[in-house]
Amino acid sequence: MLKIEGRATKFCDQISRRSFLQIGGLAMGGLSLPQLLQAEQQNPQRQSHKAVIMIFLNGGPPHQDMFDLKPDAPAEIRGEFQPIATNVPGIEISELMPRVAGMMDKFSIIRSLVGSEGRHDSFQCCTGHQFRDPKPQGGWPSMGSALSKLQGAVDPSVPPYIDLSQKMAHDPYNIKGPGFLGMAHSPFRPDGEVMSNMTLNAISTVRLHERTRLLEELDTYRRKVDQKLAAETSDNFTEQALGVLTSSRLVEALDLEKVDPQVRARYGIDDPKVLGFDPKMGYQALMSRFLQARRAVEAGARMVTCSFADFDYHSDNFGRGRKVIPLLDQGVAALVEDLHERGLDQDVTVIVWGEFGRTPKINDKAGRDHWSRVHAGLLAGGGMPAGQVIGSTDKWAEAAVDRPVHMQEVFATLYHNLGIDPATTTIPDNNGRPQYLLERQAPIRELI
Fold this sequence. Notes:
Layout: E1 5-6, E2 19-20, E3 27-28, E4 31-32, H1 33-42, E5 51-56, H2 75-78, E6 83-85, E7 92-94, H3 98-101, E8 107-114, H4 123-127, H5 143-151, E9 161-163, H6 192-196, H7 205-217, H8 236-245, H9 249-254, H10 261-267, H11 288-299, E10 303-307, H12 317-341, E11 348-353, E12 357-358, E13 370-371, E14 375-381, E15 388-390, E16 392-393, E17 400-402, E18 405-406, H13 407-417, E19 426-428, E20 434-436
Parallel strand pairs: 5-10, 5-11, 8-15, 8-18, 9-10
Antiparallel strand pairs: 1-2, 3-4, 6-7, 8-14, 11-14, 12-13, 16-17, 19-20
Helix pairs in contact: 1-8, 11-12
């Protein structure tokens, strides 16, 4: 059994880890990591690795300035942007999104999303549930947490649920966690000191002491180091567990310094001041997050979430849109192009959306206000049929008139792409009652 000498330390459970760290006790789901590794070797067949990347456009993106333009509407409704043709005949989107327009055959637009409750909150986009729905004790889990529970880790050294979003000043925007599933299925946020602590270039007691902080963060899918592991149970799988503990797989995936400069340039350059906000507010348009998301799913994540900029344009809708929407266009197009080039388009689903839309009528501050009756979303990958528009709105983009698509139908589609049937799959809550993932369980038929 490997023992690493060091000073006494205490973890958050107040248990002393005096004199040595016993690697073999690292556990997940009731099994120690060595047991999991041994089981994996005995059953080498793996399911294909399906994943979801969600780009959360917090604040409510203006659907009529991006995906559902109304050039024949009055000026106070149609706004300043013009529609442009895409590479799919008959489909037009905003002039601010030429890259996506040039590869529309790889995307599907939903113009008739309904079911939003109009709150500045990521809850519906993360869980699929509405605030007014009855909820179990502890609350509904986000989709990433549900995947962590249902499918576990693809690679023991990579959390199944990773949140690359910035920490946003408006707390309800921040990506939601595990609900009744508990901290073991929380999203892992690889930022700040956690990232710098994920690579061990030299083993020392100080570095191992700092390493414990990483373990606590990795409670999203691991348990804390066990108190006891008899030396006689040590074997190759226990030694492999040390490799997991000191693995740089995730940090290398998120480290863009080694990425081909041409690939990185395709995604664009980070400009934290693009919105003119204090970077500490957490509303920057960081292009690198798209590339990190792709690399994270390749490393083994099942779901990666990423916020992008802010779209709460009550004023200067068009000035701010001119800054932000072209960056979104570049990042999303680069991500989907990359997925296709790397053969991941059948396995990785991309969803781009926000919590609601914006008012058809422009206000006296040249902005658009909150509008929950209808909004739009963009999907790609996942083996879905593409090059189509689903649903339509009236002449002012204020209501769905054809094929309303509920937000839960989008979730049912994402689960379907992951090989999970929400009509038959349940997760027990804290009281042992089976809870279905969704109330509306049928996926979007046009995408199946």
